[in-house]
Amino acid sequence: MYRSFLLASSVLGSLAILPAAAQDENSGDTEEVIIIEATRSSTPAEALPNAVSVIGREDIEDQLAISTSILDAIGQVAPSTAPTRQKLSTAGESFRGRNPLYLIDGVPQSNPLRNGSRDGFTLDPAVIERVEILYGANAIQGIGATGGLINYVTVAPTREEGWQVRYEAGITVADGLEDDGTSYRGAATALGRFGDFDIVASAAVEDRGIFYDGEGRRIGVDTTQGDIQDSQSLNLFGKVGWEPDDKTRLQLMINTFDLEGNGDYVEVVGDRDAGIPTISVKGTYPGIPATNDVMTISFDASREEVFGGTLSGQVFMQDFEAVFGGGSFATFQDPDIDPSGTLFDQSANNSEKHGFKTTWVNDSLPVDGMTVTAGFDWLKDKTFQELVQTGRLWVPETEFTSTSPFIQLSQTLLDERLLVSGGLRYIDAELSTDTFTTLYSYGPVTVDGGTPSFSDTLGNIGASYEVIDGLTFYGSYAEGFTMPDVGRVLRGVTDPDADVDTLLNLQPIVADNLEVGVKFEQGRFSGDAAWFRSESDFGQRLVANADGIFAVAREQTEIEGIELRGRFQVTEAVAVGANYANLDGQFDSDDDGSVDSDLPGANISPNRLNTYIEASLTPALSLRGQSSTYFDRDFDDAGDATDFDGYTLVDVLASYRIADKGRLDLGVQNLLNEDYIHYYSQSGTTTEARYFSGRGRAMTLRWTGAF
């Protein structure tokens, strides 16, 4: 892997110093626009024919003073995301009813071959400059974005010579001021520029205590899927850039993130029927505490004026290990190892990916107003899941390789008020698995290995039209693809005659996203509205067994929804805003070619309304209040076992800025101390052990500054 990484890096380095072709510079005034890096083109955000959100650094700072999880900040902006579980696992935290693709500076963090739902925690928010959110299925970044893209753009180097240091320190306490409910956080980021070179270096640590709910009970630690409470994390980040001239840039980025549970608590299983949640008590849990251990490396090169356009490339690698908690589950039992039927084991997902991406953008073509974006991507992902206590393989080593050229054209017309775009991506992919034997509980059976392959061409087309200044209508159709959770499929094989080449369940998921919407910004008001429909002829639904371990069901799925966002600047000092999402999803339960049953809570979010008010009382003092309302949802499953009783959470933030010294924040999460059961615990699973309450009132005092 490292040899491939170094070889591709050298190719990019050579690419970046190619002689530049001549190009006339455009004249005239320019205005500041937001370019979304995740789109791999130079199209401004407001002109894209689909819903887009950007969370800037100031907004990130506000949300981190309320909750240190960046996923909570995303949920405040993108209401079609399911409520966060406040756990290490993001299972059930869908995005438009499907999975999002998480990226760091364009490097994929998601692991679709064995989706352990740990991709939300691979870096610390201290190094995130902004978050780019692209809604709806697309193939812009290749595999994985059936629900959309969430790209973490890391801190950019300073443009001034010398050093600048940013720092933060914070403490979070539970409402009852319990000692074991206290969390601490600190981070420092140094940014430097010295001639043609620049550097960013950051370290962030967080020590999280146990969480308490609205009734003062210790919230149950998810000892199986993993938890962020009672844990410690360390993030080390570095970025070095070189600009030998004003048209060339080379950059190396390294990020290591390690989060590990302390293992100081064990769960006391609750009673779902009686409404009693699972809680935690002090104790030592057997086995290795749940962990995320992730390293991401990328080397980027860009060169302007190459054959009339800008040529850029990225070579990357990611080494990902996620250790889960364990148990004496029936799935793990093997009488040849322990005939007592009480064998304890736990699993670890391991994914090692490396890849290469190139992009060429040219907007100086002979056809006025036309831009072409073309490129070529290559990805290799090697994944397996082992049982760490006994050394057994639960999921065999599986290797996914894909090559994928693409081209995208856009054309402006009618004095640049109309933008029409369309493109194609060709995917040639192969999955390789050797012959393996399943765990005893599945037979055991021996499954013949194979190398199933597929190829497909995915398209997109869209248009946006600015009717008057500040009023734009748009519409688009796009296809995205991912692999099903191959690990879940392979480890659950029970047919003794099965072989990898003929397993129908390994066929890729292709999601079609149709979207129409409007974007408006005029005077004091700005907003947007979108309607979308997402369909997959052979989708994926997660179904839990008696142990709470999910298997994959492949069925036709359809999801439809609306999203509304608006902001009104009441005065220069006061602004109010809201966003709303309403989603409905169904699947084909009887395989008759027509959807007929509700998607369960593990696969779709509740309808949600977020509201906020911001006020600058003085140049130094500002206030923010926000709320999230999750509406009731009924499911047409057996009885009312997974029906959802909604709830509303209110947060407040007070910030005081001291000129040239820093900012002091006081944030209160769940101000009203609402006692509630998480959406996922109500509707995503019926496992008693995962019947968790949500976090009660918690207060954060935080200081940030720079020198």
Structure summary:
By secondary structure, the protein is mostly beta strands.
Protein described:
Residues 46-148 form the TonB-dependent receptor plug domain. With 707 residues, the chain is mainly β. It has a single domain (2-20, 31-706), classed as Beta Barrel (Maltoporin, Chain A). Helices cover 6% and strands 50% of the residues. It has helices spanning 2-16, 57-64, 70-77, 486-491, 679-684, and strands at residues 52-55, 100-104, 107-108, 128-135, 148-154, 162-174, 183-194, 197-208, 231-245, 248-261, 265-268, 279-282, 291-306, 309-327, 345-362, 370-387, 392-413, 418-433, 436-437, 446-447, 453-468, 471-482, 509-522, 525-536, 541-544, 550-553, 557-569, 574-587, 597-598, 608-616, 621-630, 647-658, 662-669, 698-706. The strands form five sheets. The chain has a 22-stranded antiparallel beta barrel.
Any chance you could write out the topology, listing elements then pairs?
Layout: H1 2-16, E1 52-55, H2 57-64, H3 70-77, E2 100-104, E3 107-108, E4 128-135, E5 148-154, E6 162-174, E7 183-194, E8 197-208, E9 231-245, E10 248-261, E11 265-268, E12 279-282, E13 291-306, E14 309-327, E15 345-362, E16 370-387, E17 392-413, E18 418-433, E19 436-437, E20 446-447, E21 453-468, E22 471-482, H4 486-491, E23 509-522, E24 525-536, E25 541-544, E26 550-553, E27 557-569, E28 574-587, E29 597-598, E30 608-616, E31 621-630, E32 647-658, E33 662-669, H5 679-684, E34 698-706
GO biological process, one term: siderophore transmembrane transport
Signal peptide: 1-22
InterPro entries: Beta-barrel_TonB, Beta-barrel_TonB_sf, Plug_dom, Plug_dom_sf, TonB-dep_rcpt-like
